[in-house]
Amino acid sequence: MSARKSTHVDPNLARMETSVPPVTGPADPRESLAKRLVDSGHLRSQAAIDAFRTTDRHAFLPGVDLESAYKEDAIPIKYDEHGEMISCISAPSIVATQLEQLGARAGHKLLEAGAATGYNAALLGKIVLPGGQVWTLDVDPDLVAGASRNLARAGVGNATATLADGAAGLPEHAPYDRIIFTVGAGDVPVKILDQLAPGGRLVLPMRIRGSVSRSFAFERDGDT
Q1: 45 is catalytic
Q2: Which family would the database say this protein is a member of (predicted)?
């Protein structure tokens, strides 16, 4: 396998649910967000641009005001019993960077570790149309239930949220053309490698020094 190092730091990840109506019109925040990410160089491929333009980020962040939902911020979405944040939705630039690293295409079969709110899975579901399928995993049943509701309300019929450990993958649907982790890791999860198709790509945030993380892309060469 070969690895490519990203120049982007601290890919924090996301989680939650939705029930907010879409926003359209001259001040459509989806269009503004996509343009900002294109102008900054984070978003380049047309399929990813179109996905950002047509997916309501605010709908996956109930209780968050419209302006905040589209800012360049990571937004906390779940806390533990002590009030410590245990989950957040990544800043848009981090999401865009990982999608571009992944390079998913129409017809691809894709696995995501870290279901979060379902927003990433919604973007990915649109990118792999027509013919593609996305499975997004999480160990938190509340997040999986929320992501499932959000995806259903958003009309994303080719993305499925499943209760499972992302590090173990989902072997029953393997091999996958692309696998993406939205949660950091200290090393490449061994069980995932056998689920990646020959020529497939794995995108994974890895801790490289203390709390510093970078997003790496790994490609599987041939049948190795």
Answers
A1: no
A2: Belongs to the methyltransferase superfamily. L-isoaspartyl/D-aspartyl protein methyltransferase family.
